[in-house]
What does this fold into?
Amino acid sequence: MDKIKVAVIGPGNIGSDLMYKILRSRHLEMALMTGIIESEGIKRARGLGIKTSTAGVRAVLEDKDIKIVFDATGAKPHLQHAPLLKEAGKIAIDLTPAAVGPYVVPCVNLDQVKAEPNLNMVTCGGQATVPIVYAINRAAGARYAEIVACIASKSAGPGTRQNIDEFTQTTAKALTVVGGAQKGKAIIILNPAEPPIMMTNTVYVEVERPDEQAIRASVEAMVKEIQSYVPGYQLRVPPLLDGNKVTTIIQVEGAGDFLPKYSGNLDIITSAAVAVAEKLAQKILAGEVAA
Amino acid sequence: MKKSKFIHLVDTTLRDGSHAVSHQFTAEQIAAIAGGLDAAGVEYIEVTHGDGLAGSSYNYGWALLTDEEMLKAAAGAIKKSNLTVLLLPGIGTQEDLEMAAHCGAKAVRVATHVTEADIGEQHIGMAKKLGMQAFGFLMMCHMAPPEKVVEQAKLFESYGADFIYVADSAGAMLPEDVKARVGAVVEAVKVPVGFHAHNNLTMATANALAAVEAGATFLDGACRGLGAGAGNAQTEALVGVLEKLGYQTGVDFYKIMDVAEDIVEPIMHRPQVVRNAPLMLGYAGVYSSFLLHTYRAAEKFNLDPRDILVELGRRRMVGGQEDMIVDVAYQLAQKRGGA
It folds into this structure.
């Protein structure tokens, strides 16, 4: 089967995890890992026989066969990369909080993904909770959605720590824009317990129609769909109803590709990004999307 | 060790006490209490939802008033004191802090778990930009050894915090624990150091004094001790005790006692005493704000609240993880049902 060539910019933890997932993909070819300095991540990629560069985004722009580019740098670099990639006719999948393009959450709006030049992966908390809010909304109407994402301290890098407001604001916005709730709120907690805890997400929704059976069925179906690309995604506490308040708790265990298993928060966003790229690749291969 | 003869008091009746009234303070109550504290000479008056700015939520409980309404009610009654707010990064944002400054807040306590000070860098920076006094407030200090507390205190200092607080959010420390942590921080930073006590093990005043002995110059209290869990050190008692020890606080003992008895006591939902569940909070080292949420979960799932708290302590849950009370209660109920 034909494969679509992709590149990863940013050979850090996220970029390396993406690389391992891409190497397993049936539709994607890991054509380039690029950074701005000779780093562990660059060495790791080279060791796997992957072409590498320290010329940053330029290396991507010079290779016209690369169709899809994962940006795992930071919001500021991505703001510079986005117009360059667009001009070069490449589709950018943005894992930073730059939010240049529309939010994408597989299982919710992946089918609507067109040939957008830039797609934003929201946040890890968003990837974990937006589908649940969407599932509750389609079953019962969501007036208000609130999520609490708890992440192991070891799994929250400096980017998240220094921009924690962006996490809460972006996640809250995605709960409404993609999840369909009328209002949204997001809370993030870091827990340093040893051994590190698995990512846990609590979703509270105020619903219009408190039909417990319909909500459970919808949420359980959604969990199964997510498990197709994040096998460690599971319901810890099924939807419980208290008046018109729904409470449900989800745990995300990572696949352990490059990141440890407790980094389910990172795994869910890299898995989602690869799922988006695979969908795009299939569309490109089928000639539905020009590239 | 050099000991200051002046202790700065922060009264948190209208913030930590918010937990004890399930965040239902009215504007009239806030104005009356804030006005009374101001007239009594309290230097800092903290007014916010118990979980800080933007704390009003399913997870932490809905407040009767918005943050803005609470702050405006207090600001209108305060003449000299510093109106102070609490902000937990991950819950509140810099935008919320700007709103608070606009409402007249002069100081902010940026509170993080004892190992996570770096999530507060943005907010300390914003506070300084807004011309506010910034406190770096380390919660759940019983969970970390003194070296770790020192490392994190230094981070807060490096971000520009004017004061560093060691908080015993679970009321789990004994005086020796307090001395070890506060003393180490006092040695390590150049800025003044404070201590926030909880009375879960009936140690609040004793621990506050231990902190002072170790060099703390700021203390938290609440009238009648009104606060999460078994409450805080009692402001009016601290004033009396410190006075007997020869410290000044600038607070009038009679007036602060009157605020406690005439204004705060009549609006309390229950006496602030150390019942079994709050005692267990301190014993198991669980965040004091979990108390009322735990009572509710225990009732819903027909469990002993102490069992829920012990399990939360075993799992090493941190401040803000109120959602895990339901998780624990659900799992305990399943285990019981399925056994």
User: Anything to note?
Assistant: Residues 264-285 of chain A form the longest helix (22 residues). The longest strand of chain A covers residues 142-152. The interface with chain B takes residues 146, 148, 150, 153, 158, 161-165, 167-169, 185, 187-193, 197, 200, 202, 204, 206, 236-237, 240, 242, 245, 247, 249 of chain A (CB under 8 Å). Chain A has a mean pLDDT of 94.
